[in-house]
Specification:
CATH class of the largest domain: Alpha Beta
Strand content: 15-25%
CATH superfamily of the largest domain: Rhodanese-like domain
Bound molecules: zinc ion
Distance between the termini: 24 Å
Number of strands: 14
Shape: globular
Strand order of the largest sheet: 4-1-3-2-5
Structural class: alpha/beta
Amino acid sequence: MQESFKRTTISFYRYFYLDNPIQFRDELYQKWFSLNCFGRIYVAKEGINAQMSVPESNMELFLASLEEYEILNQIPIKYAVEDDGKSFYKLVIKVRPKLVADGLDDGAFDVTNVGNHLSGSDFHHLLSQPETVVVDMRNLYESEIGHFEGAIIPEADTFREEMDLVVDLLKDKKDKKVLLYCTGGIRCEKASAYLKHHGFEDVNQLLGGVIEYARHIQTKQLEPKFIGKNFVFDARMGERISSQVVGKCHQCGTAFDTHSNCANQSCHLLFLQCPSCAEKYEGCCSDECKDELQERNLMGSKFTLDRKDSKKKYRKSLTLKLKDLDNE
Ligand SMILES: [Zn+2]
Ligand SMILES: [Zn+2]
């Protein structure tokens, strides 16, 4: 927070085959640590998925570090649109079994048979065609603060749930032109292959996701067809794409679109809370959490929690915690 130099928030991903992800991780960590990079990066046998904050003065060296690896040559980098560089505060590179925790059995369908990749402008123009079906492939906590106009928004809390919902919702539209989108494009790689496996004929996906779309709109000075904010998985929580506020405070329903976590640490629910409700509930998601927090403050460490019969979960997606948000 106190750094006086500028940072740039970027993201990138690529699927490739890697023999030794642990060694690859260690090498990347050493290089990027020495360049003072921050971020959250996943490395798997199937590729890399990275979101990072890079000091502007080291950007060239960072890009050169990518070119040292053939598998990272010319990897498309997405630059954040609304960016103060304060997106990450440490460097974490993890080795994972898969890039996206999608819960899908990759052996059950051809993951390489993906949909057509559409550029920002192609996607933008196709949105207004009457025969197209636009589907938001993100979770509800993301789409509730921003989405493309007219998109189908499945009420899903996980990618796995989302996949089955979409196949079901679109079962009569298998011959239609389907346009998929997500934050940075990686989820649509799997989603499009999954839909094709289920008999969808004309599956298309937004290349680079909403992040790239937003940059395209900005460069071309077009009126965005995405309304509200694009939820992002870092400390910024979202990038504003249009001035419209799509989200609503979960407690009073007033227009509001910045997520926060319940102030009661044992709950830590991710939700939307307007400033006046934040004051009323002292940052908590419910009276129960507020009472518990006050009680704990009074009793100090002697207070123990028994939340087994908690009934406060009034919507499933509200049980998500920010630290669990690592879909992208
Ligand atoms: Zn409110
Ligand atoms: Zn709570």
